[in-house]
Amino acid sequence: RGKEVPQAPVKEQAAAVLRQTGEKSLYWMRNFAFITGVFGGSECVVEKIRGRNDVWNSTISGCVTGAAIQAKQGPQAAAMGCVGFAA
To answer: Tell me, what DSSP letter sits at residue 54?
Structure first.
C-alpha cells in the first residue's frame, strides 16, 4: 500500500464545492439568459415582419438562436445550430 493522501478539512472542502457550484450556476445562468433573449427578441421581430402569429415564427426564431449560439465556431457550425434549434 502507498501513502494515503491527506484530505482537506471539511470546511475547506465545503467552501470549494460551494464556490464551484456558484461558478457553474453563473455560467448556466448567462447561457440561459442569452438563449432567452435571442429567441424572444427574434420571435418578436419575425412576427412584426411577417405580420402573422404562427408556428413558423418560433421555427425561424429557433434557427436564429441556434445560429447565434454557434456563430463563434464558424458558418458550418452556425448552420447546424440553426437546424438543431429550429427542429
So the answer is: S
In contact, 63 and 83? CB cutoff 8 Å: yes
Please tell me the distance from the alpha carbon of residue 9 to that of residue 29, in angstroms, as a whole number: 30
- Angstrom distances, CA of residue 30 to CA of 2, 6, 50, 56: 44, 36, 30, 27
The pLDDT value given to residue 12:
85
SS3 content of the chain, % helix, strand, coil (to 5): 85, 0, 15
- Tens digit of pLDDT for each residue in 37-64? 999 999 999 999 999 999 999 999 999 9
| Region for residue 9 given its phi and psi (left: phi exceeds 0; alpha: psi -120 to 50; beta: otherwise) | beta
Angle at 62 between CA 59 and CA 67, to 5 degrees: 130
pLDDT of residue 2: 59
